[in-house]
Amino acid sequence: MPLPATIPLPGGLAMPAVGLGTFRVRGQEAVDAVSWALAAGYRHIDTASIYKNEEEIGTAIRASGIPREQLFITSKVSPYQQGTEAATAACEASLRLLGTHIDLMLVHWPGVAKVDAASPDNAAMRRQTWRVLEQLHRRGQLRVIGVSNYEIKHLEELLGYAEVKPAVNQVECHPRYQQRDLRAFCQAHGIAVVAYSSFGSSQLLSDPAVQAVVAAEGITPAQALLLWGLQRGCGVLPKSVRRERIEEAAPARLAGLGELSPEALAALDALEEQQQQKYCWDPSGIA
Ligand SMILES: NC(=O)c1ccc[n+]([C@@H]2O[C@H](COP(=O)([O-])OP(=O)(O)OC[C@H]3O[C@@H](n4cnc5c(N)ncnc54)[C@H](OP(=O)(O)O)[C@@H]3O)[C@@H](O)[C@H]2O)c1
């Protein structure tokens, strides 16, 4: 079965299922990585205000000559930019730096920087941020809006007051941290899941269990982990600053591989039971 190349979003928008991750990529390295990715067929770039590379991404996009409507740009409002005034300024800055509209704007994190994780201020401020995103969405500057690192409790709260429902939840998700309950909740509420850190920030690539699984398939560990995410219905965000690695994870290369065999899929599915492992920050403590 061919894997879907896009994930449907509200308003008839189609999000390319494979996007280039750009965390910790700045300056000329960011321009190069995005340029190579676009040349390799990527049409979705994932950035965030806190990555401090939106300007470079805008530059690479314009230089590519690819019509803007063929591209999909995700950015995020950082934990330092929560609340009405800061989130408004953050969105304006992202739009200015990128030099184009934003296809998907996310609330990066349910918490607020420098606010205690247990404080009710987190909920009050992320609600204000959501209202800002809703307003800019209605004005057409943010085509779709969503969240990132939201647990079920954060989503339930948001769904209770959202006038525009979140279209996406971007979360850490890979065979050692599968987010089964969260993915089921999102599916039930029509929220697309985008998986980040598919490679466990590179540590999963050398995991002996992953290596054993992929040897039989004749594919690379990166490809196996990305196919696992796609087959679980998620978008994926491979990140690399190396051209050959960007090409190894390109959408057409992955599509050409088809699905993982049932045995490989089952072996990767079994990893979390053997040992659950989270590689990124944990939002469960945010009230
Ligand atoms: N919303 C959030 O809070 C959040 C959090 C984390 C990540 N993200 C997004 O998701 C993206 C991906 O996550 P991530 O950056 O944490 O990590 P990742 O994609 O799991 O792993 C990236 C690391 O793997 C290495 N790598 C990539 N391809 C490789 C290959 N074929 N062989 C060997 N090593 C390879 C990269 O090194 P080189 O660059 O040197 O190749 C990099 O160090 C981010 O860039 C960001 O866009 C979002």
From TrEMBL:
The keyword Oxidoreductase applies. The keyword NADP applies. SUPFAM superfamilies: NAD(P)-linked oxidoreductase. Residues 18-272 form the NADP-dependent oxidoreductase domain. Belongs to the aldo/keto reductase family. The record marks 76 as: Lowers pKa of active site Tyr. This is Glyoxal reductase. It comes from Chlorella sorokiniana. PROSITE patterns: ALDOKETO_REDUCTASE_1.
